[in-house]
Amino acid sequence: MIVIGAGIIGASCAYHSIRAGLSVLVLDRSGVASGTSGAGEGNILVSDKPPGAELDLALLSARRWSELADELHAEDPTTDIEFDAKGGLVVAPDERSLAALHQQADAQRSAGVTAQPLTTAEVATHEPNLTPQIAGGVRYPQDAQTQPMLATAQLLRSARRHGARIRLGTTVTGLLRGSSGRITGVRTDRGDLFAGAVVNAAGPWAGQIATLADSPLPIEPRRGFVLVTEPLPRMIRHKVYAASYVAAVASDQAALAVSPVIEGTRSGTVLIGSSRERVGFDRTVSPDVLGVLARNAISLFPFLRDVAALRTYVGFRPLCTDHLPVLGPDPRAPGLLHACGHEGAGVGLAAGTGTLIAEALTGTEPSLDMAPFHAGRFVGSQGVNREVQP
Amino acid sequence: MSTPARPPGNFEITVDGEPVPARRGQSLAAALFASGRASWRRTRGDGRPRGLFCGIGVCFDCLATVNGIPNVRVCLAEAQPGDTIHTQEGTGHDARGC
Q1: Quick check: A237 and B93 CB within 8 A?
Q2: ipTM more than 0.85?
Q3: CA–CA distance from A254 to each of A280, A319, A341 (Å)?
Q4: Which helix (H) or strand (E) holds A136?
Q5: Which of A144, A274, A281, B64 pairs as cysteine with A44 (C-beta 3.0–4.6 A)?
Q6: Mean local confidence (pLDDT), A312-337
Q7: Which residues on A lie below 8 Å from B93 (Cβ)?
Q8: Do B96 and A231 touch (CB under 8 A)?
Q9: Residue B91, pLDDT score
Q10: pLDDT at A384
Q11: Which member of A128, A268, A310 has the closest CB to residue B91?
Q12: How many CA atoms lie within 13 A of A96 on its CB side?
């Protein structure tokens, strides 16, 4: 099989497929984790998803991530992906948003999520540096974090140890079809490569790969900025975000949506997000957006007022316009499987995605009902990829 | 930071309580280096010594606490009369952790 994309999704597909006995070649036009995987925070979240197929995938994935951290460490004790089962904390600024947050937590509990309602005083014991100007919160112990570039690299390193090959700097320019119409490989700028199956794990560029296979998918880039502070001692224990974040993720608006998401890292820096804009692949830094991120962060953690921000980075979440990933075989292109459209949850959903793709390739009973993620829902779709060509 | 008046040609700054000579237009890093100091910070992980590396504000190695503000890149800070520098252990914010 050929995996297009050496990001976290492609790496997990390669890792799980090689262990399932497949022969694996990973291609990337650039480097490991050089796109979206290298521009995020490494969130592994169940807290931000309402009950449904994506939450089921998130729960499967959260379990698999914890196992993966152990598997990688057992294989090579020097391997560290900075996996941290730190838990998430969602805070509500007022009684109205707290009621909505509790309602969502109740629904999530019935789907298998652990969600602990906290009073303002209880929140303060969990996050001593958080503003007391909140109505309350909900703690989600299943939320976790990993360092996404390390995780991508270590999954690929392990896959390579088991026989996978990785070719970087190789651009896919076309998909090859046999006389039966089946996808038989890829055309690249370095020649044709043949395989029994091709997995599209091209992140925000997955729509372009789908178009090369005449099987369009509505995958669009959704831009986000992250502000990085100077390293600090531990000041923030959880991934902390405002209840408005869930609405921002689910939103369909193209205009800027901002919702505070703040967390520490092993190295001591604090990562401050989040912004969402549909502006194509425009990497222009927006000081206005960064200003809003900083103000929102200070409103949650007042100590940040006296902390320096060192740098910022920008990335593009691969948004599938119906807000669900596209996973598994494409009925329009036999031999092509998709593993894309994870929006801002790709790191978190990668472990489950790789598991499901390996199961699909080997004909194993899937760990989850794949129907909601099926590419067949876009049969007849024109895609949206006109605007994303650089 | 504002510079109220043009500093005199030669003046003193203080490094961990010791007077160190400095010249107008000199960076704090240059003054530290000229006084024979090669390092003025210890890393937050292993406590390794750090001083001037890139010298142009990119690498964040030359951090020190200047006039009470931690993590100042002294290669970019122009010396001013009376500047007080403290060598820095760890993040410079270590008292604040929880």
Answers
A1: no
A2: no
A3: 10, 11, 17
A4: strand A136-140
A5: A144
A6: 97
A7: 230, 232-233, 235, 307
A8: no
A9: 86
A10: 52
A11: A268
A12: 1
Q: How far apart are CA A219 and CA A203, in angstroms?
A: 9
The secondary structure of A115-135 as a DSSP string is -EEE-HHHHHHH-TTS-S-SS
pLDDT value at position A381? 67
A50 touches chain B (CB under 8 A): no
Q: What pTM does this model have?
A: 0.91
* Interchain contact A299–B (C-beta under 8 A): no
A92: left (phi over 0), alpha (psi -120 to 50) or beta: beta
* Binding-face residues of A in 53-82 toward B, CB within 8 A: none
**What would the pLDDT profile of A132-165 be if each residue is shown by its tens digit?**
999 999 999 999 999 999 999 999 999 999 999 9
Please, are residues A28 and A144 in contact by the beta-carbon 8 Å criterion?
no
Q: What are phi and psi of A238, to 5 degrees?
A: -105, 175
H or E element that contains A354 = helix A346-362
The C-alpha of A98 sits at a distance from chain B's nearest C-alpha, in angstroms, of 26
Tokens (6 digits) for A31: 């480097």
Query: Which amino acid, A361?
Result: L
Residue among B60, B71, B96 whose CB faces A233 most closely: B96
| Chain B environment of A235 (Cβ under 8 Å) | 93, 96-98
Q: Any chain A CB within 8 A of the CB of B60?
A: yes
Taking CA atoms, what residue in B is nearest to A233?
B97
Domains annotated for chain B, with CATH where assigned, are 10-92 (3.10.20.440)
Closest by Cα among A226, A284, A239 to A40? A226
Tell me phi and psi for residue A176, to 5 degrees: -90, 140
A235 touches chain B (CB under 8 A): yes
The residue that leads in pLDDT, A250 or A161, is A161
Say how many CA atoms lie within 13 Å of A264 toward its Cβ: 22
A233–B93: do the CB atoms touch at under 8 Å? Answer: yes
The tokens 């460490």 sit on which residue?
A: A73
Counted across chains A and B, CB pairs separated by less than 8 A come out at 32
Count of CB atoms situated within 10 Å of the CB of B10? 11
Distances in Å between the Cα of A105 and the Cα atoms of A82, A99, A112, A196 are: 28, 10, 11, 43
d(CA A11, CA A60): 17
pLDDT tens profile A164-197: 999 999 999 999 999 999 999 999 999 999 999 9
CA dihedral A235, A239, A245, A249 (to 10 degrees): 140
Q: Under DSSP, is residue A328 helix (H, G, I), strand (E, B) or coil?
A: strand
